[in-house]
Amino acid sequence: MEKFITHIGTGVPLRRSNVDTDQIIPAVYLKRVTRSGFEDGLFAAWRNDPEFVLNQPQFKSATVLVAGADFGTGSSREHAVWALQNYGFKVVISSRFADIFRGNSLKGGLLTIILDQSDVEAMWEAIEAEPATPITVNLEERTVSYGSKNLPFAIDDYTRWRLMEGLDDIGLTLKQTDFIDSFEKKRPAYKPATLPIRS
Amino acid sequence: MILPSHYLIQQVDTQKEHETVGKTLAEKIWAEHVVRQADGEPDLIYIDLHLIHEVTSPQAFDGLRLAGRSVRRPDLTIATEDHNVPTMNIDKPIADPVSKLQVDTLRANCAEFGLRIHSLGDKDQGVVHVVGPQLGITQPGMTIVCGDSHTSTHGAFGALAFGIGTSEVEHVLATQTLPLQRPKTMAINVEGSLKPGVTSKDIILAIIAKIGTGGGQGYVIEYRGSAIRALSMESRMTVCNMSIEAGARAGLIAPDQTTFDYIKGKPHAPEDFDPAVAYWKTLFTDSDAKFDVEVDLNADDLEPFVTWGTNPGQGLPLNAVVPNPADFADSEQRTAAERALVYMGLEAGTPLKKIAIDTVFLGSCTNGRIEDLRAAADILKGKKIASSLRMLVVPGSARVRLEAEAEGLDKVFLDAGAEWRNAGCSMCLGMNPDQLAVGERSASTSNRNFEGRQGKGGRTHLVSPLVAAATALRGTLSSPADL
How far off is chain B from A104, nearest CA to CA, in Å? Predict the structure, then answer.
């Protein structure tokens, strides 16, 4: 995973709440068996509308998605994170994220940042007034800044460290194999197993 | 009676904790599964069961291969094909080449890593959350995960069960654990008794309408109260299934005699049943435990519920009218309602019961079990569905289908003019050919009414199996009382 320390890019205002993962990437686009190539499915239904914000030329190269509340609700599909990343997004900002989506994004290196709804709305206005406004996301300092604004955001130390180091979660857990071995030794015998098959 | 040693250890621990402060059920299960705890790090949690399907696993297996890793516990892993499989002509090769590749990839991965798989045509194939419980491998006190958000279904057994992303699927395959932040706890107390014609689907739709699609974010919900205790296992699964629609990753119900009776006799029920039951009986929220949040709902007042909008929180009693967006005080909700009415092609003030339906879908991990089919068949028996609509009946699993056929339910559905299909997720998410056309309107027993969920441009009203059957007969959204 690529290290994430700071990112500077422009934003795109997505003035919608409850953007569920079926909107981020509809199910018919989930049939690939790779992690790449999902950008075509991103917001597929909405992108048919020429007025949709992603279709507007001034937002073409944006890398920071600024969305309404409850972003990423619904399905656990990590394809939603891949679609956003494959399209070019590095950061998503919202006042509330669905739990599974947020977990997936932080595993995969897409930084999801929670700001107050009033700060999100102020960002929408600033970006709409000047789409080229540079937005700086500093994970080390835990701040989002643009224009004269410098907004702190919260992220737990562990996740921040893992993202800044670009570390693979599995590799970290495999260092704890001794703990897993000893846990398994005391697992009770009546816990079910899928093998051997009983019918 | 001889108790397993683990049980005794837990018992002592729990007793000690008791003297200070009680634990909720979710906290007890969590504590029993902590592999490693360290300051400033997420807890490493052991996973008792990992369910796999074709859509969210291929990239995880690829990751294992790239890193030269194996599956740590094939004996705690089980796969089935459900999300994109066809529900017709299942004896022929899958027509859609992309779906076929995904299913073939799952089969090849299971063969390579030595995993149990139930493929199309096998009697244990079906929607992953129907398969686990019917095999008896879903049991109280377990941690259960799957790359599917409706894994919360298994919480009905008093298990901590939740959906995960593909990176986490890979993590569980490799380590049988997950690093997780401990969730907060929410109690939803449903007291009273349901009127005839009102079901557990109406309970959960009413809960989501009350707390919103984000209300459960960060929480594990425990459903409690007399109305919950009175539910069958399958009805409890319907409630827990839609926890994620309220934003909660997991929802659970303390196990009781209903739970034990359901598991007994299932293929993977504990061979040594009594010690297991003795342990299961310790799985309840202590009387002095504190939830972070409590929510109350009165079951006596509940009516059949239906959604009018494009998220599961946009629901109302069936006797209501389509709401006027202007009546929403919150600006975000007002905008969402305006958008939803445009998408749904509805006018404010229209009685919900006047809405004409094109397709009725009976099935899914929410309402595709035998009791759901029985309840709908009871209403349809000897009658014909409205000529203005089609009805798809898709059993949740091949076993459910066989059971229904043994009871003659297939004949009831076919005689009524409905289609009797093979098992799969089908029109719940429209990954296979079972989809709505643009502008087509469904009454669906599934779990999500998002824009385009059941097919691009399709319009979904979420309903119970009873409302689905009554609607199929009348052609407009209806409750059994309208017949």
Answer: 6
